[in-house]
Description:
The protein is mostly helical. The chain has 6 helices and no strands. The chain has one domain (19-111). It has helices at 2-17, 21-26, 28-53, 58-64, 69-81, 87-111.
Amino acid sequence: MVAFAFLTPFFFLKGGMNISVPAVVANIGLVALLLGVKLLPKIAGVYPLARRYVPRDTWYTTLLMSTGLTFGTISSLYGLNAGIIDRTQFSVLVTVVVLTAILPTLVAQRWFSPCEEVD
């Protein structure tokens, strides 16, 4: 467990250093499209269960579930290193993966954060 905790930051730094910001900016429409494609099924899958089991905090729970950050980054980095995808594709994919972790969290904290009930 200690080795995993020690090596994880280096993995994400290596992945992050391969991102091309100009490639992301040039493909911002594709980033937005893929972001929607990734978020809509997540919401469709989690929302009904959250509504049933966590009715008071349904949207908060839905937005914070299942980001796929680690798997998306690992598979993208593998694709880049194996020559399956190029640096532009890698940049777009990792940006989408990171945004699907950050944006729902920000929205959940800003507008759907559970408040404590006063007894």
